[in-house]
Amino acid sequence: MFAIYGISGPIFQGTLESLSRLPPVARRAPVSALRRIGDQLEAGFAPEQHVGAAAGGIAGKQAVSEYRSMLPQNLERGPLYHAVQIMQPRVITVRSDDEVTHAWRTLVDHQIRQAPVLDASLNLVGIVSERNLLTALNVEEGQVRDVLLRRVRDVMTTPVVAASPLTDIRRIARVMLDRDVDGVPIVSDAGVLLGFVSRSDILRAVVTDPPLSVWS
After folding, report:
1. What structural domains does the chain harbor?
2. Whole-number mean pLDDT of the chain?
3. What is the pTM for the complete model shown?
4. Rounded Cα–Cα distance for residues 14 and 32 (Å)
């Protein structure tokens, strides 16, 4: 099951087949990055840190535990089918009202390329990537030289496609291919962010622990 979340809240919920009939999210103009996200920011820059770990709270942990309890007991070491089995439960997030420099620092410090965006009420409203941030930042030799006065909400991609924990991994992979995204947030029925599945998570599931019946 998939859902689409925007700044006004959930705007779609349905199957992969229904999702495929919706128009794709409009992408921003491409930007040529001068340096990759792993490069460091200029020395002395230390914005206020308030990285969200949306699934790290009591409610998030309980929700993950409940979904795991719904799985057959032998499924954890058996065939991989569902998002909850491969998702990253500790999600690094940013807020929609964060400055773009703070979001950049968050991605750099955690060595990630994208992060879900939450509003003041911790609702999922979008996703921000290094490509989004480079529309407002000029990075030269690993240092931020020029910064436009932008907030994350000004550059993030919204709406964003999310999936439920029991969504088939193959369907998540199909959404990534069809919509050209590098990851899919995993949310509960109530819209609580529980985890994140990236392309790397799916590839890791295929090449590591057997059985590899995810594609059977």
Report:
1. 2-12+48-209 (3.10.580.10)
2. 75
3. 0.66
4. 35
Please tell me the predicted confidence (pLDDT) of residue 36.
36
- 110 pLDDT tier (thresholds 50, 70, 90): very high
> Degrees (nearest 5) of the Cα angle 44, 49, 55?
150
Query: Any residues with CB less than 8 A from the CB of 155 and at least 6 apart, and which?
Result: 28, 100, 128, 132, 133, 135, 136
| Helix (H) or strand (E) run with residue 139 in it | strand 137-140
| pLDDT tens readout for residues 133-192 | 888 876 665 555 656 778 999 999 989 999 999 999 989 999 999 888 889 999 998 889
SS3 28: coil
193-198 and 183-187: which strand pairing?
antiparallel
- The helix (run of H) or strand (run of E) holding residue 137 is strand 137-140
Answer yes or no: are the C-beta atoms of 82 and 166 closer than 8 Å: yes
- DSSP letters along 155-186, please? HSB-SEEEE-TTSBHHHHHHHHHHHT-SEEEE
Q: Exposed/middle/buried for 149, CB within 10 Å: 0-12, 13-18, 19+?
A: exposed
Cα–Cα distance measured from residue 10 to residue 159, given in angstroms and rounded to the nearest whole number: 9
Q: What is the pLDDT of residue 61?
A: 62
In one letter, which amino acid is 216?
S
